[in-house]
Design a protein that fits this description.
The protein starts with a helix and ends with a helix. The chain is of the alpha/beta class. The protein is 38% helix and 18% strand. It is globular and about 60 Å long.
């Protein structure tokens, strides 16, 4: 492609990749997997054999190239595609190899200890991690914990994404997500020694996984969790924009399936497009109650209906629903009736520096006066 476009190729590269991704999505089944690489795409076909895959791979390569350069220039190009059958285990190894490969477009830059960014000392170096218990209202147990960052800023305690205090640095976002993951992995290793493993849910921003360098670094760190223990690690992707393309969501969520126990999508019931999440394998959809509660601390009938619709769509995708920031007991029953199963908030349990081990929590003990 660079031979045809010449010096304009670097500027056209991202547009070509985005268009190609959309092109492929429309020609593959929902169960096929597309993984974006440095110089192309890795396609994993779910329902065809090796011979069919070879033919389809060549056909797609030809069609994409003809689409961009036209029939006249196509004859001067050498277009290649490779095929091989893989098991889930082999795919996991190949994804790990891709993640560990050096970036070829100059995205990786050497570190300069003397040029420590402001946010490193003012935010990350002062950050604490806490774990808030998650209540399964159906089984009346605490099966897992959610990792929450906390920052003491001039006497004020900031939680969650508020710790960024308005800083829009993508590097800060990447480092925050990796910090939460690494520290949770370290804490989990200590928990395993006590033979009472609990599920830990770590949150990663959509922007981190949308960025190629950020995705590579995060997947690489996540893959360091020993395979037998990955079922105890859940990954929640938050701040997913309403217009996120399905291809990008598949690129993010599908590889995560091999690297963790379950994936969660944190969205807004008022804006989510569930059709974009088809074939992503999301196990839980969730939202913050802060997006629905008015100043009078009431959930309007309209928002209750939105939650019901949200839950119905999630259940159609064979996923469960959770709600965060549940700080009033009066919210729980209406949300349960709407279809919400998991609850996180101060009325369930306070955050602590270590995850709460698996335990029973009966509803009667939550609603006790």
């Amino acid at each position: 492609m660079a031979r045809v476009t010449g010096k304009s190729w670097p500027g056209l590269r991202d547009k070509v990749f985005d268009t190609s991704e959309s092109f492929l999505e429309k020609r593959l089944s929902p169960d096929d997997l597309i993984i974006r690489l440095n110089d192309g795409f890795l396609l994993v076909f779910a329902h065809i054999d090796s011979k069919q895959a070879m033919a389809l791979g060549k056909q797609l390569s030809d069609e994409i190239t003809r689409f961009f350069v036209g029939d006249e220039n196509y004859g001067d190009l050498l277009v290649t595609s490779r095929h091989t059958p893989v098991t889930i285990e082999e795919l996991d190894k190949r994804i790990s190899a891709i993640k560990n490969a050096p970036l070829s477009n100059g995205a990786a830059t050497p570190s300069h200890p003397d040029d420590t960014p402001f946010w490193q000392t003012e935010i990350l170096d002062r950050l604490s991690l806490f774990y808030r218990p998650i209540w399964d209202s159906h089984n009346e147990i605490i099966p897992s914990n959610s990792c929450i960052p906390r920052l003491d800023a001039e006497g004020e305690k900031l939680y969650g994404r508020d710790v960024l205090i308005g800083n829009d640095s993508l590097d800060l976002l990447h480092h925050l997500d990796l910090l939460m993951l690494r520290r949770s992995q370290a804490i989990f290793s200590n928990i395993i020694k006590n033979n009472r493993p609990c599920v830990i849910t770590v949150t990663v921003n959509y922007k981190t996984l949308r960025d190629r360098a950020g995705q590579t670094a995060y997947f690489n760190q996540l893959s360091k969790t020993p395979k037998p223990l990955r079922k105890f690690f859940f990954v929640c992707v938050d701040q997913i924009p309403q217009g996120a393309p399905q291809g990008k969501l598949i690129e993010i969520f599908r590889p995560l399936e091999a690297l963790c126990g379950a994936t969660l999508a944190h969205t807004n019931p008022c804006a989510v497009r569930f059709d974009s999440f088809q074939a992503c394998g999301v196990k839980l959809f969730g939202f913050s109650l802060l997006d629905l509660v008015h100043h009078d601390n009431e959930i309007s009938p309209e928002n209750k209906n939105r939650v019901s619709v949200f839950c119905a769509h999630a259940h159609k995708q064979k996923a469960l629903v959770y709600a965060t920031d549940v700080d009033e007991l009066s919210y729980i029953q209406p949300l349960k009736r709407a279809g919400v199963r998991f609850f996180i908030g101060t009325c369930i349990g306070q955050a602590s520096t270590v995850p709460v081990p698996p335990s029973t929590l009966h509803a009667k003990n939550i609603f006790v006066a």
